Amino acid sequence: MRAFVKFGIVGLGNTLITIGSYHVFVYLGLNYILANVISYLLGMMNSYYWNKNWVFRVKPNEKKTFVKFIFVNMISLLINNFTLILLVGIFFLSSTVSQLLATVLGLWINFILNKIWTFEKKEILGI
Questions:
Q1: Which helix (H) or strand (E) covers residue 48, if one does?
Q2: Cα separations (Å) of 107 from 62, 63, 80, 84, 118?
Q3: Is pLDDT at 126 greater than 50 in this prediction?
Q4: What's the predicted TM-score (pTM) here?
């Protein structure tokens, strides 16, 4: 449970980075999907550093771990973009509200995959 709390703290920081940069990019006229991808990548770089060094505290093979981390986050990004397209394009919610909902949706998937695969922790939440 401690790892999940730390993951949540890192996630909050990533979310602030992602949402803040997303708003800047949209304000500057970027398409909301392109803004989301760029913003997500900024948050992801922050996430990798803190998850590797503070949340999961592992010193694995850097290249292998980084590739796994990128793969997990690309899955999360696809889910995030699909959710955005669905909520903005079909349900006509604002892109801001949609982006917040999409971010929340990917939290658990991202945590579990990073915990058991990327950073090679075999137990989930102490189970």
A1: helix 32-50
A2: 23, 24, 10, 15, 15
A3: no
A4: 0.70
